[in-house]
């Protein structure tokens, strides 16, 4: 199937009543609704910075839920946007999906080894082969700092979700990641990307996987026509692999939808996440 990715992505921007955490905050600073920005001057420029030409220190945005308590653990819900991924601003789509409850939310930017303007989608397309090493190195550093900042993360139920290029990044991480990365996330949400790029299915054994794709009904541009043609084959290939490897994977077809995830599907994702958290 032809891999697709949007070049523009809608970012959830939230007012920043944030704690700028160069160092780990004191436990008393971790309160319901606390937001913080973690800076990573040692990391390479994000895909957003590379594409926009707006150089900035690489950052991650964290948000504690409204029902946060230091007395119990909360899973981390990382979300990776599509396209260029944005600058790591705002609490992320996971925050919206879960209605600001039950998880610690992280919005991480995307990374790519280099942009080749002659490549697919003007060089913005993330692939395991070209970008896996860069992605794994960056997310390892980011996640270790997140853990150093917030002590009560429920690793056994962590979630990582991504749209389009974000989904490709998740799969690149799982295809090439080391034991640390593989053990950090137990649940994956792959939206319009990534799921059709899985190659090493054994690496996903024991993980919960939710994969979503539009049906492209009414999408009559070249992308819509191509996706309607290719989707049945791609879905059948994935379903056969899921059965062969006995993976815990659930598919969701987003009706009347193209390369997007309208907010009306947030409730479906939330229900799946809550089911995973209850296990």
Please tally the helical runs, counting DSSP H or I stretches of 4 or more residues.
7
Order of SSEs: EEHEEHEHEHHEEHEH
Biggest β-sheet: strands ordered side by side in the sheet: 1-2-3-5-4-6-7-8-9
CA gyration radius, whole angstroms = 18 Å
Q: Termini, distance in Å?
A: 34 Å
Helix content: 25-40%
Characterize the overall form: globular
* Mean pLDDT level: 90
* SS-based class: alpha/beta
Major sheet size, sense and barrel closure? 9 strands, mixed
Low-confidence stretches: 1-18
The fraction of residues in strands falls at 15-25%
By DSSP, the count of extended strands is 9
How would you describe what is shown here?
With 279 residues, this protein is α/β, with parallel strands linked by helices. It has 7 helices and 9 strands. It has helices at 47-52, 93-97, 128-149, 165-176, 179-184, 222-245, 266-277; strands at residues 18-20, 35-40, 58-63, 76-80, 104-107, 159-163, 187-191, 208-214, 248-254. A 9-stranded mixed sheet has the order 1-2-3-5-4-6-7-8-9, with helices on both faces. The protein is globular and about 55 Å long. The model is unreliable at 1-18 (pLDDT under 50).
């Amino acid at each position: 199937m032809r891999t697709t990715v949007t070049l523009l992505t809608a970012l959830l921007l939230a007012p920043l009543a944030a704690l700028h955490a160069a160092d780990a905050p004191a436990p008393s600073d971790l309160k319901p609704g606390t937001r913080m920005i973690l800076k990573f001057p040692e990391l390479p420029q994000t895909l957003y910075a590379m594409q926009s030409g707006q150089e900035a220190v690489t950052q991650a945005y964290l948000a504690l839920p409204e029902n946060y308590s230091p007395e119990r653990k909360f899973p981390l819900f990382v979300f990776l946007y599509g396209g260029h991924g944005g600058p790591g601003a705002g609490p992320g789509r996971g925050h919206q999906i879960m209605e600001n409850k039950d998880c610690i939310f992280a919005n991480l930017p995307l990374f790519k080894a280099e942009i080749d303007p002659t490549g697919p989608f003007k060089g913005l397309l993330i692939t395991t082969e070209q970008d896996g090493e860069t992605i794994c190195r960056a997310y390892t550093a980011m996640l270790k700092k997140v853990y150093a900042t917030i002590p009560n993360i429920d690793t056994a139920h962590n979630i990582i979700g991504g749209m389009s290029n974000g989904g490709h990044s998740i799969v690149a991480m799982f295809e090439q990641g080391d034991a640390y990365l593989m053990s950090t996330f137990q649940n994956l949400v792959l939206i319009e990307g990534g799921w059709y790029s899985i190659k090493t299915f054994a690496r996903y054994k024991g993980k919960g996987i939710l994969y979503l794709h539009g049906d492209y009904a009414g999408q009559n541009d070249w992308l819509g026509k191509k996706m309607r043609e290719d989707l049945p084959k791609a879905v059948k290939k994935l379903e056969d692999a899921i059965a062969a490897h006995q993976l815990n994977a659930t598919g969701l077809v987003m009706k009347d939808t193209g390369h997007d995830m309208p907010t009306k599907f947030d409730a479906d994702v939330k229900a799946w996440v809550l089911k995973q958290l209850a296990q």
